[in-house]
Design a protein that fits this description.
Shape: extended
Number of strands: 0
InterPro entries: DUF1232
Main location: membrane
Helix content: over 70%
Protein name: DUF1232 domain-containing protein
Largest sheet: none
Order of helices and strands: HHHHH
Number of domains: 1
Oligomer: single chain
Keywords: Membrane, Transmembrane, Transmembrane helix
Mean pLDDT: 84
Structural class: mainly alpha
Distance between the termini: 60 Å
Pfam family, one: DUF1232
Low-confidence stretches: none
């Protein structure tokens, strides 16, 4: 599997792990590791900071896939396959609803505009 295919697979595996976290049939150890994996995947804080040359990207290349693959191994195959199908259908549906991000974008634009006006008025007195 090349890097591009692996990246596409990760886009399905991470949501599938999140879905498996909420299933009753998922073993407790798998749920604990799934929670750690999801938190680590979404966290802006890395175990090895990205500004450290070469080593900084090792956690993205090695640690996150290691967490994901370990979690997948703990989830029973039939449950994880079902979770992957659910994740794929969610992804397809959500791509069609990109316009739901518009209010958030407008809030950010308004915030930047307000901050710009504030700094502009403070420094031009």
């Amino acid at each position: 599997m090349n890097l591009k295919q692996r990246a596409k697979q990760l886009k399905i595996d991470v949501p599938a792990i999140f879905i498996a976290l909420h299933k009753k049939e998922t073993p407790i150890l798998a749920k604990v590791l799934a929670l750690i994996t999801i938190i680590y995947a979404l966290s802006p804080i890395d175990l090895i900071p990205d500004f450290i040359p070469v080593l900084g990207f090792l956690d993205d290349i090695i640690l996150l896939p290691l967490f994901i693959s370990s979690t997948i191994k703990l989830i029973p195959d039939d449950i994880f396959t079902q979770c992957q199908h659910e994740a794929q259908s969610l992804t397809r549906k959500d791509l069609k609803r990109w316009y739901f991000a518009l209010p958030i974008l407008l809030i950010w634009l308004f915030t930047f505009y307000a901050l710009f006006q504030l700094f502009h008025s403070l420094f031009n007195q």
